[in-house]
């Protein structure tokens, strides 16, 4: 399988690259900047030179996405799937009366508009037999189960869930998921988090491969182990 992963230099994104390459998948690993060094990802690229390819892909910059897509298209690359993983949590714990709207715009720009930009440009490279788009969401995007805090983050993921549902209708031949990856031991999730990004990535690959079953009646919004979430 050929898979595009955004935010691939650390955390869950890096786990997708490592596990995907171990499985023999060809991974196009998106990173924000061509001027930054990404030692862990570069090490993986050296270990799997035919499978891991680093792509400059700043999800907040439509030009960067167009350029990356154009380059892959010119080389005749097609994709089986897209994993929109890049995300930020900027407003953790900020009360509603102290919210900084610039941070809100930045959060939506990456968490919501990022996947929209990527799908807008890359969907026509999806030519595999059972193509898929995985939007990495969060349980923080559930309106039913929301809490006081992480306002912009939760709203950006709720909007991402809506995008997934609309895509499900627009692209009936493509499997579309909005997946909560669990509370992860990453820079975003912190050290106390109970779940490793590797285990989460393994289970999400299981959903993609049909090895992990998805709750009957679930639409696009599910957990990393296939359980239905309430919007
Ligand atoms: N960790 C959790 O407990 C948890 C729970 C629920 C959902 N999630 C979701 O899971 C996904 C991965 O989270 P994580 O824990 O792995 O986070 P992380 O360790 O903070 O990594 C975030 C990744 O996103 C990239 N990114 C941010 N802005 C970008 C941009 N404009 N263009 C390209 N890449 C960009 C980062 O790149 P840079 O290194 O360049 O910043 C980094 O690779 C996110 O969508 C997050 O919302 C995480």
From TrEMBL:
Stored InterPro entries: Fungal_SecMetab_SDRs (IPR051468), Sc_DH/Rdtase_CS (IPR020904), SDR_fam (IPR002347)
Superkingdom classification of source: Bacteria
Keyword match Oxidoreductase: yes
Keyword Hydrolase in annotation: no
Pfam family, any one: adh_short
PANTHER family: NADB-LER2, SHORT-CHAIN DEHYDROGENASE/REDUCTASE
Family under the similarity heading: Belongs to the short-chain dehydrogenases/reductases (SDR) family.
Name this protein carries in UniProt: SDR family oxidoreductase
Top-level taxonomy: Bacteria, Bacillati, Bacillota, Bacilli, Bacillales
């Amino acid at each position: 399988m050929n898979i595009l992963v955004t935010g691939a230099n650390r955390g869950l994104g890096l786990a997708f690259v490592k596990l995907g390459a171990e499985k023999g998948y060809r991974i196009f690993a998106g990173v924000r900047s061509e001027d930054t060094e990404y030692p862990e990802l570069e090490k993986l690229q050296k270990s799997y030179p035919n499978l891991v390819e680093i792509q400059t892909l700043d999800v907040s910059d439509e030009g960067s996405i167009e350029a990356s897509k154009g380059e892959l298209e010119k080389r005749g690359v097609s994709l089986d799937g897209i994993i929109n993983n890049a995300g930020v949590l900027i407003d953790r714990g900020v009360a509603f009366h102290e919210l900084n709207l610039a941070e809100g715009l930045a959060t939506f720009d990456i968490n919501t508009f990022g996947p929209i930009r990527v799908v807008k440009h890359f969907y026509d490279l999806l030519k595999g037999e059972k193509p898929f788009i995985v939007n990495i969401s969060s349980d923080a995007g559930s309106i039913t189960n929301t809490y006081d805090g992480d306002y912009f983050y939760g709203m950006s993921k709720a909007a991402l869930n809506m995008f997934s549902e609309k895509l499900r209708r627009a692209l009936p031949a493509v499997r579309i998921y909005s997946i909560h990856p669990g509370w992860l031991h990453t820079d975003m999730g912190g050290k106390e988090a109970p779940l490793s990004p590797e285990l989460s990535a393994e289970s999400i690959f299981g959903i993609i491969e049909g090895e992990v079953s998805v709750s009957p009646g679930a639409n696009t919004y599910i957990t990393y182990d296939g359980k239905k979430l309430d919007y």
